[in-house]
């Protein structure tokens, strides 16, 4: 039940796109293997697969339907910061990695229409809980938000279980939350595979059902990008303060280019094999 990340470069997509189907079993041979150092890891596996010009994809016998590759995370482990540090990226203000969660949808809040750049997108916030009644915030964007909004409108006080696969975990201003990661995530409501049915049976028998807050209210707000938020909330230090610092810290350098010397050549240190910095 282990998972691995697989990447196809642009030149290999057309050849293989009709051979690869979500949920289907395939035999893949003659591929390349590299260290899994991706910014967003869809799998904790130390290696990942790359398709090459010699890679072959053939049909295979269907695998056991109970093997779905899910690695559900306990909400208490999220709140207590027990997640694998090898997944963590970024700085102390925001760290992210990809994971699977399953939870009962407890409440759904307002649907917000955000102006992101030159287009509008929807954002939906909800609260989910696990079998230990630990709550976790979940934020969905775009089509994911629209789909959950439709589910909520027809819930009729039901017990709704949702699975977020390849979701993004974020720690922002001391609060943990999960959400969809671009378009690679999957959101499944009321799934019927064994893990979800067992999860539903273990939920607290307290009669708690979905509460939909303000179902007809739309809020239009201006979205502050991660970049703008970083510059607004990150603490700043001068060069002299950094030199005098006694603790180990990670810094992002921001400076103003006063002038460029065009009389003499310039250089930077690079790798002798690939010429990259």
From TrEMBL:
Source organism: Eutrema salsugineum
Top-level taxon in the UniProt lineage: Eukaryota
Domain Replication protein A 70 kDa DNA-binding subunit B/D first OB fold: 3-59
Transmembrane segments: none
PANTHER family: OS03G0429900 PROTEIN
Family matches, as Pfam families: DUF223 (PF02721)
InterPro entries: NA-bd_OB-fold, RFA1B/D_OB_1st
Residues annotated as signal peptide: none
Listed name of the protein: Replication protein A 70 kDa DNA-binding subunit B/D first OB fold domain-containing protein
